[in-house]
Design goal:
Number of strands: 9
Strand order of the largest sheet: 2-1-7-8-9-6-3
CATH class: Mainly Beta
Number of helices: 1
Structural class: mainly beta
Order of helices and strands: EEEEEEHEEE
Largest sheet: 7 strands, antiparallel
Number of domains: 1
Radius of gyration: 19 Å
Shape: globular
CATH topology: Pnp Oxidase, Chain A
Helix content: under 10%
CATH superfamily: Hcp1-like
Distance between the termini: 45 Å
Length: 165
């Protein structure tokens, strides 16, 4: 089989004390969009008139998430992170047998809730990655998504009927 179903991918935010809060109702999670600058080193002696380049700085890019918008689940910590001048630690756990995860520091650069007249409440959240994101396998019992240490704040179903005030 060439591909893997992405259903079950989850985004978490560290509370700074070893616990991870899940962002609930995510419908699409874009992984870090890595890029690298190129530095033009072309000079009058460049062979055959071709431009020459060397690799420059790397950029951890952005992560974007689309969610079914529930104000009671999203507004608190997303707005807190947006207003905060500090970076926070996030982790995206992929639904692979090896529990691959992207862990990165980031800050919220965009928060766009919308209420179209003919569709569901939805929101888009954009994070700017600061530094190098890490792609690794989580060991047994390590980190969020193992059912033990993700507390589900901002996440999962809590038995509400969906009638947020």
């Amino acid at each position: 089989m060439a591909g893997k179903n992405a259903f079950g991918t989850k985004l978490y935010r560290s509370d700074g004390n070893g616990e991870w809060d899940q962002l609930s109702n995510a419908t699409s999670i874009d992984l870090p969009s890595l890029s690298r600058e190129d530095i033009d080193v072309t000079d009058h002696d460049s062979p055959d008139g071709y431009m020459e380049f060397v690799p420059g700085l790397r950029d951890g890019g952005e992560v974007s998430v689309d969610c079914n918008y529930r104000p009671s689940r999203h507004d608190d910590w997303v707005m807190e992170d947006f207003e905060d001048d500090e970076v926070h630690r996030y982790r995206i756990v992929l639904p692979t047998a090896e529990r691959h995860a992207w862990t990165f520091d980031a800050f919220v650069t965009g928060y766009e809730p919308s209420a179209p007249h003919d569709d569901k409440l939805e929101t888009s959240i954009t994070f700017k990655v600061s530094g190098k994101p890490d792609l690794s396998e989580l060991g047994p019992g390590e980190g969020p998504g193992n059912g033990e240490d993700d507390n589900g704040n901002g996440g999962g179903d809590d038995g509400e009927n969906g009638d947020d005030q």
